[in-house]
Write a structure and sequence with these properties.
This protein has 173 residues and is of the alpha/beta class. It has four helices and seven strands; from the N terminus they run E-H-H-E-E-E-E-H-E-E-H. It is elongated, with a radius of gyration of 22 Å.
Length: 173
């Protein structure tokens, strides 16, 4: 198993998810008490109780996995963004070039490379584990990625620039 990389934002997302799961488990346990009381036991004709017990087990297992992720992951300090090559925390300006359709328009995109599970395309954040994020990782400005398949189409990305912050990026637009 490879060590996952997370940022402080990713750490917060995991902690919030654990809190939500804890709350859901509490609600399930309350429902289990009602289901148990309604039938008198857990053995006879009580599929509702069994279903709740399975849901509780799944959520408890997810909590254990998330806590393990928090303790074993490598925390990335994005206040010191890498501007030499693309890494977790980098803000990268690139041009997406279609291999399959050479007549298509090239699209300039700006992405922040997030940690494990931190993708939020609406905020221009892609996890380093996504196809685009993994293609960009390690690339330097004025280089191209290897061919990358996205939704059944093939692209390469030309790295234009790396930024220290979103403010710097916005200033250079």
């Amino acid at each position: 198993m490879s060590i996952k990389k997370i940022t402080s934002n990713g750490e917060s997302l995991i902690i919030d998810r654990i809190k939500k799961l804890d709350s859901e488990i509490t609600a399930i346990r309350e429902e289990k008490a009602i289901a148990y009381t309604a039938s008198g036991d857990t053995w006879h004709d009580n599929p509702g109780f069994n279903s709740l017990e399975q849901a509780e087990h799944r959520k408890a297992k997810e909590i254990v996995e998330l806590k393990d992720l928090l303790t074993t992951s490598h925390k990335i300090d994005i206040t010191k963004r890498n501007t030499t090559f693309v890494d977790v925390g980098s803000i990268v300006k690139c041009v997406r070039i279609s291999i399959d359709d050479p007549l298509s328009t090239e699209a300039t995109e700006i992405w922040e490379i997030g940690g494990f599970g931190e993708s939020d395309p609406k905020k221009n954040v892609l996890s380093y584990e996504t196809p685009v994020g993994s293609a960009l990782m390690g690339c330097k400005p004025d280089t191209e990625t290897e061919q990358t398949e996205i939704a059944g189409k093939n692209y390469i990305f030309e790295i234009v620039d790396l930024y220290n912050s979103w403010n710097e990026c916005n200033d250079k637009r």
